[in-house]
Amino acid sequence: MSTSQPPVPEGPPRPDRSPPPAGQTPAPAAVASAGGAGVPAGAAGVPSPAAPVDPPGSSDGRPAPPEDPAAVRKGRPPVSLSPSRASDFMQCPLLYRFRVIDRLPEKPSEAATRGTLVHAVLERLFDAPAAERTPLRARSLVSGQWDRLLESRPELAELFAQDEGGERLARWMSEAEALVERWFSLEDPTRLEPAERELFVETELESGLRLRGVIDRVDVAPSGEVRIVDYKTGKAPRPEYSEGALFQMTFYALVVWRLKGVVPRRLQLVYLGSGEVLTYDPVPADLERVERKLLALWDAIVRATATGEWRPRPTKLCGWCDHRARCPEFGGTPPVYPLPVVPGR
């Protein structure tokens, strides 16, 4: 494997220039991180159920895609697939049911909310002129973005309701500030002019499957090459689990390819928790493979929706699940299934 392939330039983008056609996409480079972790080129795809994922409630707090009006109320069959919901089904089909079909409420967590806050700060920082995108300015945004978050989601105040002295909140805010500041050791925002931030993307495949998601950042190089960037407030995975980590990014790359006919030049995961960057340069064959796996996954979801058979898949992550009390693996009883069942499907 070679790691000598030059990165996508960080100069100002030229939105009016079209990126190269999918057929001209360079061959994939090796995946590499600042800490030396990597996976072989061509390993992108859907992670196996055995691959560890973030515990429920400890995600990076990325904003959920806008809800499809047809699926807002509980008891509606799923009509689209996002990276998060695909990962839910692979982790545990019953968890997918609880979240998508039953739409059971979940308590906010400090980790996920901190991720939401950090994402908001990194997005807002680019509102400032390039020369003013400094660590000091970024840290100063944390408090104001927290206030805005509380205004839009008042239930988050429950996280620190018992923190009478404010010590936990202060520590939590300091942790968010540290994550924001660490970003500056991984990327230089004074040399970046994102083409898009928090970009909602959606496409419908020929099969009728609708894919949707929100991309943290899209960079376009002077040459027209596209880079998709995602921030993670956790730590980078071990090399043997990097394939699972890249699933979300190859999902986004597939959506962009099907929407624009362009294969992104680079996929980049920025891990603020461990100060590492994981990159992957996809080719059409990678994305075709991901598409086939997503279609197979969707077939399984459609089948489970029709039969009502959503089997739990116990793992060490069950201890973090908000729905453990309703899970039959732990003596619980799921809610009455709200959809009609088609026997023998």
TrEMBL record:
<keyword id="KW-0227">DNA damage</keyword>
<keyword id="KW-0234">DNA repair</keyword>
<feature type="domain" description="PD-(D/E)XK endonuclease-like">
    <location>
        <begin position="80"/>
        <end position="328"/>
    </location>
</feature>
<dbReference type="InterPro" id="IPR038726">
    <property type="entry name" value="PDDEXK_AddAB-type"/>
</dbReference>
<dbReference type="Pfam" id="PF12705">
    <property type="entry name" value="PDDEXK_1"/>
</dbReference>
<protein>
    <submittedName>
        <fullName>DUF2800 domain-containing protein</fullName>
    </submittedName>
</protein>
<dbReference type="InterPro" id="IPR011604">
    <property type="entry name" value="PDDEXK-like_dom_sf"/>
</dbReference>
<dbReference type="GO" id="GO:0006281">
    <property type="term" value="P:DNA repair"/>
</dbReference>
<dbReference type="GO" id="GO:0004386">
    <property type="term" value="F:helicase activity"/>
</dbReference>
<keyword id="KW-0347">Helicase</keyword>
<keyword id="KW-0378">Hydrolase</keyword>
<feature type="compositionally biased region" description="Pro residues">
    <location>
        <begin position="1"/>
        <end position="23"/>
    </location>
</feature>
<keyword id="KW-0067">ATP-binding</keyword>
<dbReference type="InterPro" id="IPR011335">
    <property type="entry name" value="Restrct_endonuc-II-like"/>
</dbReference>
<feature type="compositionally biased region" description="Low complexity">
    <location>
        <begin position="24"/>
        <end position="48"/>
    </location>
</feature>
<feature type="region of interest" description="Disordered">
    <location>
        <begin position="1"/>
        <end position="85"/>
    </location>
</feature>
<keyword id="KW-0547">Nucleotide-binding</keyword>
